[in-house]
Prior knowledge:
The protein is an alpha/beta fold. Helices cover 29% and strands 25% of the residues. The protein is built from 18 helices and 32 strands. Helix 2 (62-81) links the parallel strand 2 and strand 3. Zinc ion binds at residues 111, 126, 128, 169, 171, 173-174.
Amino acid sequence: xxxxxxxxxxxxxxxxxxxxxxxxxxxxxxxxxxxxxxxxxxxxxxxxxxxxxxxxxxxxxxxxxxxxxxxxxxxxxxxxxxxxxxxxxxxxxxxxxxxxxxxxxxxxxxxxxxxxxxxxxxxxxxxxxxxxxxxxxxxxxxxxxxxxxxxxxxxxxxxxxxxxxxxxxxxxxxxxxxxxxxxxxxxxxxxxxxxxxxxxxxxxxxxxxxxxxxxxxxxxxxxxxxxxxxxxxxxxxxxxxxxxxxxxxxxxxxxxxxxxxxxxxxxxxxxxxxxxxxxxxxxxxxxxxxxxxxxxxxxxxxxxxxxxxxxxxxxxxxxxxxxxxxxxxxxxxxxxxxxxxxxxxxxxxxxxxxxxxxxxxxxxxxxxxxxxxxxxxxxxxxxxxxxxxxxxxxxxxxxxxxxxxxxxxxxxxxxxxxxxxxxxxxxxxxxxxxxxxxxxxxxxxxxxxxxxxxxxxxxxxxxxxxxxxxxxxxxxxxxxxxxxxxxxxxxxxxxxxxxxxxxxxxxxxxxxxxxxxxxxxxxxxxxxxxxxxxxxxxxxxxxxxxxxxxxxxxxxxxxxxxxxxxxxxxxxxxxxxxxxxxxxxxxxxxxxxxxxxxxxxxxxxxxxxxxxxxxxxxxxxxxxxxxxxxxxxxxxxxxxxxxxxxxxxxxxxxxxxxxxxxxxxxxxxxxxxxxxxxxxxxxxxxxxxxxxxxxxxxxx
Length: 700
Ligand SMILES: [Zn+2]
């Protein structure tokens, strides 16, 4: 067994895997740089990106690849002799996008990906094309012969986002294979009409998604088999694009995990963090969501290295602080480590951006301590969110959206809840209250929905409408919807009046209804309340006249508690105007009422935070990131204890040491522990606490 085939030496640390390309005119110098950088920045693995980005040819010619062989072998040998794991990341499989390229001669005549309107790409190959399959199979055998620890499959192995087209593949090969498989005779026009039918979906859509899933699984199996024919121990890595998007191709994640594992015994998952270029701090919420949702989709299988990627590179694209926040939130979200695509692919020296390396070295001990404190796969606690692999099969479409309208929007509550300080979880078995948005709930059975409605549920407008379509009307949700439209189609609406004194309301407590901003209108519904439902806030017009209920509460006949919001949360929840200290107070009371007690983790801070709570067998990790540019003098965390005794509470200091929190900074309330951190709380300086429970296992 070569060095690169040893298992990951230890995942009991925060694994650093540098993704790095080499250019043919200075690869030897680059190798020297990488070796020096790996030592100083504590890099464990180098994933060599082949045929990357700007200088890529659409599909690497096997002969030209063979000319790179000496370079790749040298890189591998030099890395291995320094104890660094060597892996490979071919930058394309089917191809990401055209960028003015055309198909090379060796693939001339290959079918390219085609969208639902019949538009084709110039270079992205249809995965059903026999010529492309034969080519890619041979190429991937060559990769395997280089003896890497992992060969990574890029996320271009997907049906969507192949600019200039959005969704594929509706080419003649696909339509012919679908017709043969199902016995349904169809052409592009009839298929399109059925897939995009408004309202209740045509049953054909489910068959189409199952077919798409079969094609992608078959394609990925071609890649896995090509590699593992050469060496059955080489692991496969997969970059994915978020379960909310892979519903567009009906991805069955557990089946995919089996294929990816192949003969190697395990595989590596690379969930995206989405912030490639830094634009807004609030984008930081997308990473922990993507990581934890992908893990739930994969049913906790695989090694997880998140994707920290700073395209188009340098500190101009992403600050050191944002890069650190992505790494820290990845590890706090349970990842085994991170992949680091920090340096450009046009051959610039690493020394142009020394700041990243220093940050990596300085952070390593702190990150390792988190990894060692709790098993990465331990469940998270918070307000629950729904994921379903097949949600595109059940989603209703309307005039406003085409095939992309099938993307899942079940995460609409994540950003507002977390920003206000309330932790969330995709581990549905680990929560008492769930927050529904989008149409995800349509994929759940009557028994599953009933069990949700017997507990605590918070619904937005779209979720209320979905439940009503499925027969769960005002008798269980407390409201029915008689009209929907843009907020200001209801008249000169001014504000939400929070009027219920037990739910953060009072005289003169208003929140803006200009949502999400001055020029756009969110979606609003007109609720009619069941007789026992109550309103805790209403929308008023510019003369303070009540126009319609906004937030309502209801105890249903199933014994459950339901809170409903008349906004479509996906259209307003990200807005600064939706968030406010009044909203925080209102949501705290609503969530405590739904949970009938303390919330798993509530972080009380003046502005946006990112709270995470993970429960291991004997301890809990509770953390918070400050998602603002302001420095705050301390922060308070409120944790539900479930009646358990607390043995110790420790905080993680900057050098990665756990130190006991003085008793004076702890308050014990009924079923709730309060931790008062007095240190300055700022961006890129998260607070992390380890709570060790006294006796017994955690049962939440
Ligand atoms: Zn096709």
